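Worked Example 4.2. Consider the chain below.
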Amino acid sequence: MFAIEAYAAERQRFIKNDKGGLDCPWEPCRVIGVTKDEDGELVFIVETQHGRDLMLETETYVRRA
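Applying the procedure from the previous section yields the following structure tokens:
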């Protein structure tokens, strides 16, 4: 993992809707680093908030907020 200067970003989430399709809202996150996944592809390490919990996750695509 490489730490970088953290910045505000948004990640796209895929959520099933009532009609059987997918909604793709953008959710806020904070990029704190980059690493490689098991296939050797670069991924972003993001910090997300779910209620009162902070979680670290990896995302392949983010956009600056």
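The beta strands are 2-12, 15-16, 22-23, 26-36, 42-50, 53-59, 62-64. The mean pLDDT is 93. Compare this with Example 4.1 before moving on.
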